[in-house]
Amino acid sequence: MSSKTKKILKKAWNVTFTVIVVLVVACAIFLVGSRIAGFKVFNILSPSMEPKYSVGDLVYVKAIENGNIKGIEVGDDITFVVGEDLTVGTHRVIAIDEEKQQITTKGLANETEDPPVHFKNVIGEVKFAIPLMGYVSHFIQNPPGTYITLVLGAIFILLVFLPDIIGGVRKLAKKEEPVAVSANASAPVPTPSAQPEEAKKPEEENPQE
Question: Residue 143: is the preceding peptide bond cis (ω within 30°)?
Fold first, then answer.
């Protein structure tokens, strides 16, 4: 593979990696960060609010506490619970009865209005929605989508760090590779160090008589 091809592939990988990281961060912000900001997130499961909200849209609801509907007016879209099974719905406010503490709602695509909802059953007001994001949220939060997401995340992390791991292994292998010695090369013969000769003891002269 030529160096030019390697550069093109590396550039393509960097762009792909950047796009994926941006998408992951965006999903994390919209699915997790919004909850920190006081929003509750709900999937639209029916077409009752079309054309404004379609099935699969994700709505972000600013939660209220203790039935305090201050700020909610006729024409706002709210999310609420109804029935003994606590079914969650998102419809438009068409009337507010302060005396009875009830709100009447209606789906934009419905011909009839809903039964009145007590203030305490109001979850909050819809602030904005993201089209089709509900499908992603539902897939990630429910098996087998949860497991598939975890596996894909692990594979993605492995692919990100795999080039560095392979490069490190190759460098380590090069360092540990033995240096080849030529067969014709003769080992240097060590030169013996000169040993000092022992000084001869001078012969004693016979004393003359």
Answer: no
Q: How many CA atoms lie within 13 A of 153 on its CB side?
A: 10
Closest to 61 (Cα-Cα) out of 45, 47, 74, 44:
44
49-101 pLDDT per residue, tens: 999 999 999 999 999 988 889 889 999 999 999 988 889 999 999 999 999 99
Within a domain: 204: no
Q: What order do you get walking across the sheet with 58-63 strand by strand?
A: 39-43, 58-63, 122-130, 77-82, 87-97, 102-106, 117-118
Contacts of 32 (CB under 8 A, 6+ apart): none
For the whole model, what pTM was predicted? 0.61
If asked whether residues 49 and 126 sit together in one domain, one would say yes
